[in-house]
């Protein structure tokens, strides 16, 4: 038997129930993994509330975890029992143990702890996707990053600094502003009141070529107004609700803007792309380009509180569960 957190119906954090389940056996191509750390991300909240749909109910949320391989199914040659591995983007992480496709796991390099791997892989690969693939940034540019003190936001600030990019970080408090500055934000804006006017002041009227935003509906229009002509709006999350009701003409009126809604699942669907993204993240950690801040640790039994705190935006950096 093993402990897991399951959802039987969409709704609030109270829907996260701790239950005992029979230990599964890995099928062909799968491994049985004993979790040492589990990542908590906003996408977990989207699934719990029904913004994204589980394939079936009851379901175990969570997309990211790291641990030790306990057994392997037929045909698995990429990992062995006792190996430490991490994965991102596979539902079912909120559990002491789980089966996961071996093809979606990558080895944890020596010198990197499992809790760091679980806190970094999904967020780090997301930052890599945004800065290097969705809209590659270049030295000398100025970008706008919402939630700059969050898990992905801190990685965006750090990685952009390494690339010689000037970052304007948007945060909700003085404490988060200090954290964003410490992690590479060149300028920090607290709150989103008159956001475009404040960006215009910071940039001397030039505005920015790209906005990276995981907050969703709340800041969407204000973010469009921060873009220079032919700029790109990258909306990659729904923390304040899904962006809806967009008129294509509004992009034209603001200077022939581009709009994209990328997902990490698309950008890492091929095994080679997953390996390259993971290698970039772990390489950046080992060289000190990325410093992983685990701002919150919760017991698996406290998964509901972890999601409450994440939704309330009282967290900083990455959040993990410890089984």
From TrEMBL:
<dbReference type="GO" id="GO:0003960">
    <property type="term" value="F:quinone reductase (NADPH) activity"/>
</dbReference>
<dbReference type="GO" id="GO:0005829">
    <property type="term" value="C:cytosol"/>
</dbReference>
<keyword id="KW-0521">NADP</keyword>
<dbReference type="GO" id="GO:0008270">
    <property type="term" value="F:zinc ion binding"/>
</dbReference>
<dbReference type="InterPro" id="IPR013149">
    <property type="entry name" value="ADH-like_C"/>
</dbReference>
<feature type="domain" description="Enoyl reductase (ER)">
    <location>
        <begin position="11"/>
        <end position="321"/>
    </location>
</feature>
<dbReference type="InterPro" id="IPR020843">
    <property type="entry name" value="ER"/>
</dbReference>
<dbReference type="Pfam" id="PF00107">
    <property type="entry name" value="ADH_zinc_N"/>
</dbReference>
<dbReference type="InterPro" id="IPR011032">
    <property type="entry name" value="GroES-like_sf"/>
</dbReference>
<dbReference type="Pfam" id="PF08240">
    <property type="entry name" value="ADH_N"/>
</dbReference>
<dbReference type="InterPro" id="IPR002364">
    <property type="entry name" value="Quin_OxRdtase/zeta-crystal_CS"/>
</dbReference>
<dbReference type="GO" id="GO:0035925">
    <property type="term" value="F:mRNA 3'-UTR AU-rich region binding"/>
</dbReference>
<dbReference type="InterPro" id="IPR047618">
    <property type="entry name" value="QOR-like"/>
</dbReference>
<dbReference type="InterPro" id="IPR013154">
    <property type="entry name" value="ADH-like_N"/>
</dbReference>
<keyword id="KW-0560">Oxidoreductase</keyword>
<protein>
    <submittedName>
        <fullName>Quinone oxidoreductase</fullName>
    </submittedName>
</protein>
<dbReference type="InterPro" id="IPR036291">
    <property type="entry name" value="NAD(P)-bd_dom_sf"/>
</dbReference>
<dbReference type="GO" id="GO:0070402">
    <property type="term" value="F:NADPH binding"/>
</dbReference>
């Amino acid at each position: 038997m093993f402990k897991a957190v399951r959802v039987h119906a969409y709704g609030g954090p109270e829907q996260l129930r701790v239950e005992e389940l029979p230990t599964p056996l890995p099928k062909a191509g799968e491994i049985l993994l004993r979790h040492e750390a589990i990542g908590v991300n906003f996408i977990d909240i989207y699934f719990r509330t029904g913004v994204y749909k589980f394939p079936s109910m009851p379901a175990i949320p969570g997309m990211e975890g790291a641990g030790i391989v306990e057994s392997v199914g037929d045909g698995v040659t990429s990992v062995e029992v006792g190996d430490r591995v991490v994965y991102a983007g596979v539902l079912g992480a909120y559990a002491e143990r789980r089966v996961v496709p071996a093809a979606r796991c990558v080895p944890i390099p020596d010198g990197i702890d499992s809790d760091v791997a679980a806190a970094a892989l999904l967020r780090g690969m997301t930052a890599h996707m945004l800065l290097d693939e969705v809209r590659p940034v270049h030295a000398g540019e100025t970008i706008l990053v919402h939630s700059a003190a969050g898990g992905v936001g801190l990685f965006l600030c750090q990685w952009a600094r390494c690339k010689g990019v000037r970052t304007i970080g948007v945060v909700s408090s003085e404490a988060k502003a200090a954290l964003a500055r410490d992690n590479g934000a060149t300028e920090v804006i607290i709150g989103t009141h008159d956001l475009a006017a404040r960006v215009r002041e910071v940039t001397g009227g030039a505005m920015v070529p790209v906005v990276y935003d995981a907050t969703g509906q709340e800041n969407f229009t204000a973010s469009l107004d921060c873009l220079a002509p032919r700029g790109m709006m990258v909306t990659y999350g729904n923390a304040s609700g899904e962006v809806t009701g967009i008129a294509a003409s509004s992009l034209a009126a603001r200077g022939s803007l581009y709009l994209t809604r990328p997902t990490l699942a698309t950008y890492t669907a091929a095994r080679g792309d997953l390996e390259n993204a993971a290698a970039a993240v772990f390489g950046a950690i080992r060289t000190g380009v990325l410093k992983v801040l685990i701002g919150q640790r919760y017991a698996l039994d406290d998964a509901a509180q972890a999601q409450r705190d994440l939704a309330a935006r009282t967290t900083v950096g990455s959040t993990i569960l410890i089984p």
